[in-house]
Every structure is written in structure tokens, then in C-alpha cells.
Write a structure and sequence with these properties.
This protein has helices at 2-69, 210-213; strands at residues 73-79, 88-89, 102-104, 109-111, 116-119, 125-127, 132-140, 144-150, 155-162, 172-173, 178-181, 195-202, 205-207, 218-224. The chain is α+β, with helices and mostly antiparallel strands. The protein folds into two domains: 1-70; 77-224, Distorted Sandwich (Glucose Permease (Domain IIA)), CATH 2.70.70.10. Strands 2, 5, 7, 8, 9, 10, 12 and 13 form an eight-stranded antiparallel sheet that branches. Strands 1-14 form a two-stranded antiparallel sheet. The relative contact order is 0.16. Bound molecules: zinc ion.
Length: 225
């Protein structure tokens, strides 16, 4: 029994001894594989988080930097608009250095016309060409009912030969607001039929109203974005 007991461990020991080189080789292969895997994984891992980390600040920084530079207002050009849908031009603007005369059918003589007559059917709406404040709303024999509007920046327009007064002095009007209706109330121009007699002054000097009527004149204003 004793000899058997001592023989079996000695067999196992002999097996270990005979195969030690093989076992060592297997162990070494496993160890090398483990090291290679560990190195590979440790190399790959930082690459993945690096990209988003490197990318995010670049994307964030410009948007943060842009915010303080973004303007809160912007400049826009607001154009004057025709005060009515007219069917034709009657007496033109003739005032100026050349002093050109135009014949008045009503007064039956030649005169300088410091306005433009815009023909339209009686009752056609007359609108403010631009924002402004009504500085006069009254009537006279020669001009009929008329409204003067200070459009700011020293531009003042007078809308004559209106059918009635629907605005009053001090009224604040917006561009496009109806301020009256076309009629033939201007006795001085009665023979010309229903029309709007439109005068425009800049710095109290008469100017040709047509560039305003045609929407060629504008004012640059700052508006909130
Ligand atoms: Zn006129």
C-alpha cells in the first residue's frame, strides 16, 4: 500500500517533469496573448474618447464667441409708397430753376405747379406715403380739404383736394394709413377733374414728389432683430 501510495504521486510528478517544457510554453503563449490584448485595448481606448473631446470644444467655442458679436438691431431701408392707385398724371411738377410753366384749365393761365396732380376716380383712398404726424388738417377755397403730414427728417407732404377730413392735427399715422379720399374739392383745379394734388417739401423747399410716389426714396432705419 505504501509503495502504491508513493508510486502514484511519483507518476504525476514524472508527468509534470516530462511535460514541463510544454506546460511552460502554453503558459507563455497565454501570457503573451494576454499582454498583447491588454496593450491593444489600452491603445484603442484613448483614441475613441479623444475624438469627441477634441471636436466638442471646437464646435462650442465659435458659437459661444459668436453670441456677443451678434447684433440686436439691423438697418433696413423703408421706402416711401405711392399715396394712391392713380390712373394718370395731370399737371406735373414744374417748379424749379428752369421755371417751366404749365397751363391751368381752371384758372386759364400759365403757372408754375409746385406739386403733382395724380388723377383717380372720386372716392379713391389716399394713404400716407410714410409714417408721420399730421400737422395740418383743414380746407381752403382754392385747395379744398387738405392734410399736411410731417414724415420726419424734414420731409413734409401735403395731400390736397380731398373729399373730407378723416384725420386731425396731432394724429400719428403709419405708412399706408388712409388719410382721405380723392375728390375735386380744389377749386383752383376744378376743371382737371378728381385728383390728388400732392406737394412735398424737403427742408421747406419744394421738390418733385414723383420719386416719392414711385417708391424711389427711402429712409434707413434700425429695427430690432
Ligand atoms: Zn395741382
Amino acid at each position: 500500500m505504501n509503495s502504491n501510495n508513493t508510486k502514484q504521486p511519483s507518476k504525476f510528478t514524472r508527468f509534470l517533469r516530462n511535460n514541463a517544457a510544454l506546460l511552460l510554453l502554453i503558459f507563455c503563449v497565454l501570457a503573451i496573448t494576454a499582454v498583447v490584448l491588454a496593450v491593444t485595448l489600452s491603445k484603442n481606448e484613448p483614441v475613441v474618447p479623444d475624438d469627441p473631446v477634441a471636436g466638442k470644444p471646437e464646435e462650442d467655442k465659435p458659437s459661444d464667441a459668436d453670441k456677443p458679436n451678434q447684433p440686436t438691431t439691423q438697418k433696413v431701408n423703408v421706402y416711401f409708397a405711392s399715396p394712391l392707385q392713380y390712373t394718370g398724371v395731370g399737371m406735373e411738377y414744374t417748379f424749379g430753376p428752369d421755371n417751366i410753366m404749365v397751363y391751368s384749365q381752371t384758372l386759364e393761365h400759365w403757372l408754375t405747379h409746385k406739386a403733382v396732380d395724380l388723377k383717380a376716380e372720386a372716392g379713391t383712398a389716399v394713404c400716407a406715403m410714410f409714417d408721420g404726424t399730421v400737422t395740418k388738417a383743414t380746407q381752403s377755397y382754392g385747395t379744398g380739404y387738405y392734410v399736411t403730414i410731417d414724415h420726419g427728417d424734414n420731409v413734409v407732404a401735403t395731400y390736397q383736394s380731398l373729399a373730407d377730413l378723416i384725420v386731425k392735427e396731432g394724429d400719428v399715422v403709419k405708412k399706408g394709413d388712409v388719410i382721405g379720399y380723392v375728390s375735386d374739392s380744389a377749386e383752383y383745379e376744378f376743371m382737371d377733374g378728381p385728383h390728388l394734388h400732392l406737394e412735398v417739401t424737403v427742408n421747406k423747399e419744394y421738390v418733385d414728389p414723383m420719386p416719392y410716389v414711385n417708391g424711389e426714396k427711402y429712409r434707413t432705419v434700425e429695427v430690432a432683430v
